[in-house]
Amino acid sequence: MAALARLALLYMATWFLAGASAEDGKIVNGTAAGPGEFPFVVSLRRAKSGRHSCGATLLNPYWVLTAAHCVHSSSPEQIDVQYGSQMLARNSSQVARVAAIFVHPGYKPEDKYVNDIALLQLAQSVALSKVVQPVRLPEPRQVTPGNASAVLAGWGLNATGGVVQQHLQKVKLQVFSDTECSERHQTQLHDSQICAGLPEGGKGQCSGDSGGPLLLYGSDTQVGIVSWSIKPCARPPFPGVFTEVSAYVDWIVETVNSCSPSTTLWVGQLIVGRSPPNLNS
């Protein structure tokens, strides 16, 4: 009887450890990003504490793209940007200060977070390298079809009430058509929003992923910015809602050029200004 009790305890301990391992390191049921897989993803932090607050992407050495709700109530000196690493580190040496914040003038959180997009101008340029690269923007008004495969990357909570991930996570999702997205949310969403998740739920964005990128699967083209989702995170039948980047490419280009005319951006197949450096050597 004692031997059976010991065996039962051993089985329970093994089951518990396996369960803990299965839940560790998730975005919401995602996996760790591979080395250098998302060289354009950066972390927005509280400047005083170094705590991660939102995701973002590098557009070029001076400009960062994120969600308006991440920065609309902040001043530039309250935020900094950690870049060039998939690991969050409060004492990182790869941190850039923010010089200016540009929130879209049409941002309305009370209207389903329409125009949830913002640009950050950095106080100093970041050096491009194999692990620091610009993201590609889609063509203006480019349509991402329903059922397309996409990837979300971020450091957000592994579940509602969970913890921020220290290692950058990724998860493969399905894009939903505008019609299906609105039907699932039982409200008419805006044409400038895009949805992604899984029909059965269980995978997707959570708190801390806001401002981060949704990318076309197998590419470095950013089609969405994490905006909002129904809680608890990844709850079916509600896919996550993203700002659709293609609706704002003209605004991005206009804003960047008005502040730094010589600055270049990577838009679709057309290289505006210069191409990103070839760092394969």
From TrEMBL:
<keyword id="KW-0732">Signal</keyword>
<dbReference type="InterPro" id="IPR018114">
    <property type="entry name" value="TRYPSIN_HIS"/>
</dbReference>
<dbReference type="InterPro" id="IPR001254">
    <property type="entry name" value="Trypsin_dom"/>
</dbReference>
<keyword id="KW-0645">Protease</keyword>
<protein>
    <recommendedName>
        <fullName>Peptidase S1 domain-containing protein</fullName>
    </recommendedName>
</protein>
<dbReference type="InterPro" id="IPR009003">
    <property type="entry name" value="Peptidase_S1_PA"/>
</dbReference>
<keyword id="KW-0720">Serine protease</keyword>
<feature type="domain" description="Peptidase S1">
    <location>
        <begin position="27"/>
        <end position="257"/>
    </location>
</feature>
<dbReference type="GO" id="GO:0005576">
    <property type="term" value="C:extracellular region"/>
</dbReference>
<dbReference type="GO" id="GO:0016485">
    <property type="term" value="P:protein processing"/>
</dbReference>
<dbReference type="GO" id="GO:0004252">
    <property type="term" value="F:serine-type endopeptidase activity"/>
</dbReference>
<dbReference type="InterPro" id="IPR001314">
    <property type="entry name" value="Peptidase_S1A"/>
</dbReference>
<keyword id="KW-1015">Disulfide bond</keyword>
<keyword id="KW-0964">Secreted</keyword>
<keyword id="KW-0865">Zymogen</keyword>
<keyword id="KW-0378">Hydrolase</keyword>
<feature type="signal peptide">
    <location>
        <begin position="1"/>
        <end position="22"/>
    </location>
</feature>
<dbReference type="InterPro" id="IPR043504">
    <property type="entry name" value="Peptidase_S1_PA_chymotrypsin"/>
</dbReference>
<dbReference type="Pfam" id="PF00089">
    <property type="entry name" value="Trypsin"/>
</dbReference>
<dbReference type="InterPro" id="IPR033116">
    <property type="entry name" value="TRYPSIN_SER"/>
</dbReference>
